[in-house]
Amino acid sequence: MIKPTRPASRAAIATTLFTALVSALALVSGVRAGMAESFAYVGNADSNDISVFKIAENGEMTPVQTAAFTGVEKPGSSTPLAITPDHRVLIAGVRSQPFLAESFAIDPKTGLLSHIGNGPLADSMANIATDRGGKVLFSASYGGNKVALNPLQANGVVGEPKHVIPTGLNAHALLPSPDNRFVFATNLGSDQVLSFAFDAAAGTLTPSDPPAIKTPEKSGPRHFVFHPNGKFVYLIHELNGDVAAYSYEARSGAWSEIQRTTALPEGFNGKPWAADIHITPDGRFLYASERTTNTLTAYKVDASSGKLTTIGSVPTEKQPRGFNIDPTGRYLAAVGELSDGMTVYAIDQTSGALSKLKSYATGKKPNWVEFLTLK
């Protein structure tokens, strides 16, 4: 005879529910623990090093490392950074003699840097970047009026300059198009953007036809960024504070101006000194920095026309030469050359407005920020 099963007691039910809850929390915790972690890397010109910060989900930064340069004695005027597309190597440009590119391996688990070797640059380079395939390092020399290509070796160390091209006055950036078929170089002192066809296999540049995009006289084109959809380009001008929007024709590499606005805050009175420009990964918001007023200006981007609507400006670090946006598009970090610090802002996901979260100490004369989410 089978005896009837007794109903479970309240205590037993409570125990079962508690166990299930603990298991669920452990599962969630485990998922979070396994999520890819993000880091910010800050190039410091006067201390010849890189400040490494780990980013929490709420935007909190934790300093985890100061990675010193090897074989460098004197500080340079700035420290441009670039991360290879495979996220394995960070490269820093040293703007003091002997003009080195310092390569650091990025630990895929901790985000920490370890020096792996130095390679020669063709001059003091204000800007460095890799091509989309990670085979070549592009660089631009402001004082040397030239741009250059260096091959990247398999381990991420930079090889000897392979292609050095004289430009107009004050080359300031040399960056590839989204499809890697063209490369563009700003000439701040000549008010033009040079256009080249890029042969990735051969590692060579050939002037396009026409070879340059002209900008207004004494505007000083400096940095530019492509919209994630590849249809628009945004260019900041150092000398007049303009931010220009262009439509981009991928087949020919042609730029056509569609709008011109400003990075200068309302009521500005002085000499403009605009610096950097970045766009959120989803392409909805654009930001620009201006050094005379120590401000960041935000813009809303129209997805169909590419045109900008100014959101407003906020104060930031002193002399904000560089800033960047994290891969989630939720946070912006700006560094001040004269404040030796970095301020992190939350980006309002509806309006694009910036709200200050917290400031952090960096190395001396910080001027460049790169973000990375580990794969």
Task: Throw out a few tags for this protein.
4-stranded antiparallel beta sheet; 375 residues; disordered N terminus; mainly beta; 49% strand
In which range does the helix fraction lie?
under 10%
What is the CA-atom radius of gyration, in angstroms? Answer: 24 Å
Distance between the termini: 61 Å
**H-E string:** HEEEEEEEEEEEEEEEEEEEEEEEEEEEE
Main β sheet profile: 4 strands, antiparallel
Specify the number of helices.
1
Task: State the low-pLDDT regions, or none.
Answer: 1-9, 11-34
> What is the strand arrangement across the widest sheet?
3-2-1-28
Give me the count of strands: 28
Mean pLDDT: 92
Class of secondary structure makeup: mainly beta
What fraction strand?
A: over 45%
Shape: globular
Plain-language structure description:
The chain is built from one helix and 28 strands. It has 375 residues and is mainly beta. The longest helix is centred in the first third of the chain and has 25 residues, at 10-34. It is globular, with a radius of gyration of 24 Å.
Q: In short, what is this structure?
A:
By secondary structure, the chain is mainly beta. It is built from one helix and 28 strands.
